[in-house]
Amino acid sequence: MRIAKAVFKKAILILISISIVGAGAVKAQNVEYVGSALWNFCQGIEIRDNYAYCLYESGLQILDISNPENITLVGQLHIQNCDLADISVSGNYAYISVWSTDLTIVDISDVGNPLLVSNLNLGYHTGNIFASGDFAYLAGRDGDNNIQILDVSDPENPVVEGILDTPGIGWDIWVSEGYAYVADGGSGLQIVDVSNPDNPVLLGNCQTGGSCGNIFVSGSFAYIFDSNLGFGIIDISDPWDPFIVGNYTDLSMPTKVFVSGNYAYVAEWGLGLGGGMKIFDISDPTDPQIAGNYTDLGILSKSICIKENHAYIANEWDGVRVFDISDPAEPIPTSGYYSAKTVYKIFTGQNYAYVADWYVGLHILDISDLSNPTLVSTYSLGDYGFSDVIVNDGYAFTIE
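Below the sequence we write its predicted structure tokens.
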């Protein structure tokens, strides 16, 4: 056992009213969410201006990234059951698709106070989402609703405008200049005319020989991940006849690609095979080459965005990791906004909560305002975490 003075980092706090039912028994009548902090499992990230909109299992967090060396939390909104989800930001709204069939719309006009606007149950498992203007485009994974186009001009009342069943299973979607580009699983890349949202029309397709799961479109090319091609580049200049021009196969488990200039930045989940970030030189689309990589992110990289000379990676348990990519050959970790990993025990006393984190250490939260618990500090022993904590007389007693 080690003795240390310390402070806390992640827990969801709830207000519970109970009534005595019988001897030694209690029954919870009302459970109400009050506030939370130290979220983990960061699975998605979108950047607009100086803010990063980060999707966690617990909901949406908004980070100020105007200074990449000192990222700060400015606002958050708890959203129930927000797992296996994707986020797209357009205008003053964030659009969140949740695997469990929901579309959630959040007003982000005040970044310090994001507000839930509406929640629509679509009745099918959703894939990724792309929002643009008055419409949100959803990939679907249930077979009959592989693309749904929703009119979100009235965010409080989103309405399904058009539906199209593609040959495969829609995993990801990108919309540009009246066309939707769909990563359609075993049916490769599908291109859809969505200029008339009421009547989307399937145009050309490109068979990839594997399962196509992620897409980014820039100029005349679509950049995809595919179980056969790996990282693939497809010429989409003719929407009726897209074709593969180049690929790179030596990847572990890519999750997201972001293209900026002559480089493609790839987040890899890894699965024990060296996940992290790979940077490709795509100046010659027929022959993409590795320009740089960073592999010390374990198996956790889920999504990636680029802003100027920095890469922002949604890194599941580690929150958001930031890299200086001014030299693509040597990406350098610079900062981040870190999460709790595995919380084992929590101890509360007066205005503070003390959290034992198995991987990180001890977090201390100020809970004087239950609706807005804030992280005060984190104490870590490096390679050691804690499985238990008790606080007494100014000391935290922890079990390593």
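The CA atoms of residues 304 and 313 lie 4 Å apart.
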